[in-house]
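Friendly challenge for the regulars: who can give me the structure tokens for this chain first? No prize, just bragging rights.
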Amino acid sequence: MSVSSAAHLGGALRALRLQRRASLVEVASATGISKSFLSLVENDRSDITIGRLLRLVNYYGADMADLFPQAEPQDPIIVKRGEQREVLSPEEGIRVFLLAPNVERTMNPSLGVIEAGGASAEKASHAGEEFLHMLEGLLELSFGDADPIVLEHGDSAYFKAERPHSYRNVGEGVARFITVSSLSTAGRSESNG
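First reply, four minutes later:
Bragging rights claimed.
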């Protein structure tokens, strides 16, 4: 149920917290993640689930891509196969490949890969909207108490990402899907005005 990526993940989370001038106690209170666990993660002594990582990133007003170093972006942005930054959660059986660098943008594309039997440890939510398109396998998409939706190769889903949602591979093989998350247009309007 944990994310392991580049060894600098803890340091990047600490830097975001310090930029916000927040104590571990304040972050713990706001996110529901214990102070002691946050300290372990910031010191690279514990992994973290993707859901918890999203909670922290949302609290800091950042994006997951902000946690990984990158070269100066160009236009057009080209990300070659094998150059994508990867977020790996072995206990959840989930790999997320970030398909574009962190630059000012309105879309966040990623490739999700969930091993057979893999699933989100908890429901996640984030600002904006999300589009998902299945490339391979069977994926169960769940929202709160609603009946889960099973998606297969060629199926798509489009939803408000603020709705807590989770994924579970219900097939016998790997489930692969593309997601594109957008920033909330309401949030952008409020921050600009």
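The beta strands are 85-89, 94-98, 107-114, 129-136, 138-143, 149-152, 156-160, 165-169, 175-182. The chain has two domains: 9-67, 106-192. Your move, everyone else.
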